[in-house]
Specification:
Number of helices: 5
Radius of gyration: 20 Å
Helix content: 25-40%
Strand order of the largest sheet: 1-2-3-4-6-5
Shape: elongated
Structural class: alpha+beta
Oligomer: single chain
Number of domains: 1
Order of helices and strands: HHEEEEHHEEH
Length: 195
C-alpha cells in the first residue's frame, strides 16, 4: 500500500499560530477599557481568514441598561489580501438607539462614520484602507406593542487594516465609537447637571 500514515497524521495537526496574530490577540485581551463597557470573547467567523478572533462589547448605563452594543473581529491572513492592503484586518459592527432629536439629522450617517475615523485618529491607531456603511432606521410602534412610540437606531459596519500587531489603540477607538453612539461623554469628562 502506498499510503503514508505519517502524511495523514501531519495533515490533521493544525499549523502553529503565527506570532503576529498571537501578539495581536494578546494585545486585545490585555487591554483595559472604560468601566461602562463590558468586553468578552465571542466565537469568531471561520471563513473570512485563516485566523480570526472576536470580542463583543456592550456599553451599560448607570441603571444597567444597554446603551450600545458591538462586535470587533480581528482577521489575519499571513499571505495578505489585496483588498486589505495588509495581513491584519479589523471588522467592526456597532449599534445604538439614539434620541429622537439626533435621529432626524440628515447628517447622522456622516457623523456616525466620523465617530469611527475620529476615534482611530485620536487614539493614534495606525490604519489604512478603511471602509464601511452607516445605516439609520426609524421604527414606529402601533396598537398594543409596549415600548416607546418611535425609536431611531444607528448601525455602523466598518473595517480597516492595522499596520502592526498592537491592537490597543484600535480597541480603545472602537470603545470610543460605542460610547459616542451611546451618548456618553469622552473618558475623563464629567457632565455637570443643571441646577
Amino acid at each position: 500500500m502506498d499510503d503514508d500514515p505519517t502524511a495523514v497524521l501531519a495533515a490533521e495537526v493544525p499549523a502553529p499560530t503565527p506570532d503576529l496574530f498571537r501578539q495581536a490577540v494578546t494585545s486585545l485581551t490585555g487591554t483595559s477599557v472604560r468601566a461602562e463597557v463590558r468586553v468578552e470573547p465571542l466565537r469568531p467567523p471561520q471563513r473570512l481568514a485563516p485566523y480570526s478572533y472576536a470580542i463583543a462589547a456592550d456599553v451599560r448605563g448607570a441603571d444597567g441598561d444597554e446603551l450600545a452594543t458591538g462586535r470587533l473581529v480581528l482577521l489575519h491572513d499571513p499571505d495578505g489580501v489585496e483588498a486589505w492592503d495588509g495581513v491584519l484586518r479589523l471588522v467592526a459592527f456597532a449599534s445604538a438607539e439614539l434620541d429622537a432629536q439626533m435621529g432626524v439629522d440628515p447628517m447622522l450617517p456622516a457623523v456616525g462614520w466620523s465617530w469611527l475615523i475620529g476615534a482611530l485618529d485620536e487614539r493614534a491607531a495606525a490604519y489604512r484602507a478603511a471602509g464601511g456603511t452607516v445605516t439609520q432606521t426609524t421604527s414606529t410602534r402601533f396598537g398594543d406593542l409596549a415600548g416607546p412610540h418611535t425609536t431611531i437606531e444607528l448601525e455602523l459596519r466598518g473595517s480597516w487594516t492595522a499596520d502592526d500587531a498592537d491592537m490597543t489603540p484600535h480597541l480603545h477607538a472602537f470603545v470610543d465609537l460605542l460610547c459616542a453612539a451611546a451618548g456618553l461623554p469622552p473618558e475623563g469628562v464629567t457632565v455637570l447637571s443643571p441646577g
